[in-house]
Design brief:
Number of helices: 5
Largest sheet: 8 strands, mixed
Structural class: alpha+beta
Helix content: 25-40%
Number of strands: 8
Distance between the termini: 36 Å
Length: 169
């Protein structure tokens, strides 16, 4: 698939995006990779989405990832401290995985956080067995800092890999 990078951008979340979120909840690969319950209860999912849209979470900003006029995922900035923040992304449509969208969005998220909040140090974590995520982090310039802790990922207890990136001033 040929992806036009100019058609992918970060934007505010909207309640009207909810149908895309419902689609993600029906995507086995997305649910498994992101720890989502498949076919989540519609009302519970809507309440979660409403909280995301109204940004009722402390110390976190969630932005939408849009491609070809539709929401395809989200990007997070969290735990702001001393010009640093943790980042994360999720591409909700697994058919779009492995096309460089995640890498593009991480770069855009870094620029956004730097320009809007003066963030110069970024942290991220992923699972040792999530090779797509690890490759994306390293491609953008993150370096592995440690391998501490474990979490359940795709049905198995997996070691976490922590990453760090410092922007040159």
């Amino acid at each position: 698939m040929d992806i036009n990078r100019n058609e992918i951008y970060l934007r505010k979340l909207k309640l009207e995006d909810f149908n895309a979120v419902v689609d993600w909840s029906r995507d086995d690969r997305f649910c498994e990779a992101n720890g989502w319950q498949k076919n989540r209860d519609h009302l519970e999912l809507f309440k979660w989405w409403e909280r995301c849209v109204t940004n009722q979470q402390k110390d976190m900003i969630r932005l939408g990832i849009e491609y070809k006029n539709r929401l395809i995922g989200y990007a997070d900035l969290a735990e702001f401290k001393n010009n640093s923040a943790e980042i994360g992304i999720a591409i909700g449509d697994s058919n779009l995985w492995n096309n460089g969208i995640g890498t593009q969005m991480i770069k855009k998220l870094l620029n956004y956080a730097n320009e809007q909040f003066g963030v110069t140090t970024f942290y991220g974590k992923t699972y040792e067995t999530n090779h797509r995520s690890r490759k994306m982090m390293e491609k953008v310039g993150f370096t592995e800092e440690s391998r501490e802790g474990t979490e359940l990922y795709i049905g198995k207890e997996v070691k976490l890999v922590q990453y760090k990136l410092e922007l040159n001033e």
